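Hi U.,

Before I forget, here's the chain from the pilot set. I'm dumping it here mostly so it's searchable later in email.
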Amino acid sequence: MGVLPQPSSNVCFSKAEGERKGTTMDGYWAPHVKHISRRRMLGGTALTGAAALAAACGGSSTNSNKSASTSAAPQRPGQSPTAATGLPAGSATRGVSANAPELKIADSGLMASTTNSDPNVATTPANALTNVFDPLVKLDQQYHLQPAAADKWETPDATTWTFTIHPGISFHNGDPLTSADVKYSLDRIMNNNKDFPQFIYYSPYIDSVTTPDANTLQIKTKGSNAVLANRLSILSVVPQKYIEGQGLPNFQQHPIGSGPYKFESWTAGQSITIVRNDTYWRGKPPFPRVTFQTVTDESTRLNLIQAKQVTLADNMPANMLDSLKASGFKVANAPSAQIIFLGANCNQPPLNDIRLRQALAYAIDGDAIKKAIFSDSMLQIGSPATPLDAGYDPTIQPIPHDVAKAKQLLSAAGVATTLDISLLAGTGSNFFRVPEMAQAVAGQLQAAGIKVTLNLEAAGKSGQDYLTGTVPGLHEFTCGDIIGDVSHCTQLLFNQRALYYKSQPVIDTLVKMDQTLDATARKQLQSQALKMIAADVPWVFSYAEYHRFAMDPRLEFTEVPDGNYNMFDTRWNG
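Structure:
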């Protein structure tokens, strides 16, 4: 039987304390709720672009990359920086197959349902539109920072970041990409917290943005900020001249970027099509055209790939991967940085009692759920971090299954046979086996003597309910790390604006963690924060999703952990 770490507090902050700090829907979250791809951002119940807004109030930044004092790209702590050269790392020219076909991708998300293709609004087409725009810097498939539109960056002091823009980059209409476009891309976000959910990644931390020359961008931060570069990896550089000349509505319907593919068309709710940018500055992309089809039904996606009507399909049934492989398809079953969790409302009885949260965790058999529900296609985790996140601590393991221990804790809390809780979970095309998981958890809790009322709601409804901060008992939600560091989800979900759990010692540690530039010291603080959170058991069950793809065997495709489709580095062997 595992031993629980000591909690930082026996009960969480009261709901009244949360209201004083503005955690309610009306006071903080409501203006920023956006429907976005579940794979792309925070969104248990598949919602909220700026539900990410909680990050703004952590008083810190979010990544464990060491601040660089040279002109090389900083990597994770303990790693040597990537040398900055004329082209970004990993962009060495590779031959483009002369017979590479047009690709068709069946995607389970609702990424074609939006009416806005502005990449920095972070709405649902983001997984496809990352191919239309260049970021300033990017995360690779190992979640390491790499150059992109910026060849290099340096931090000569604790509050100065200087980025050198690669010369000769052009937008799809021929206009040059300069530091002024990067500044414009940042300014329009920082000056508009209503329309741009990414506001929370920049405005709380950036003091000023200047452009000493066309190829130099300088950012001054309000304090030491360990991972500004990681935050900038989600910034798409947009064309200032085009937007100001043609108008924002035109840009939102016909986006122009500098990326390897050009936007061609979309049909809301059905598809998005991009075409090759033959003059792309990093080299010619491999495929002439890529169409992303929205296919929400799992069996339909499976039928499409089996009939070879699409080249790639996502969210495959885990129990069908072996069969697909035997039929000649290439399959991928890869860990992601997407966390699904069952959180407790620590602000109200009965789960403000840590003994009851511990009892619930002991009563849940994660191994059984992994095998029966997910066909081993998930990883149970013991803290709000995945192995892909910088700062992840593998020594923090899930609470082991122990029904006897669960009953002992229930008895000690005086509710051996009377505990009655509710469990809210979302349903929808992007909720792979979430309803089945919730049903299994409810059954296991009931077997331990806990009465459970299961509420399954459609994604939008359950998300809206979650954001009220008043859901009793347990709730299913999700957080996907899109910047490559444990502080993304910890800052979103455990700072002073958090809805269901607060611990001042945790908040203080998170702030210190992201103001610490020394990589070794910061890694220690990351581990400390994760251990403190795990000890308080605000989540009674959590796991990292796997991304499951089936594809034509001639396709070389590896998804980036944040869920984006990187079509420039995808190849065709045929």
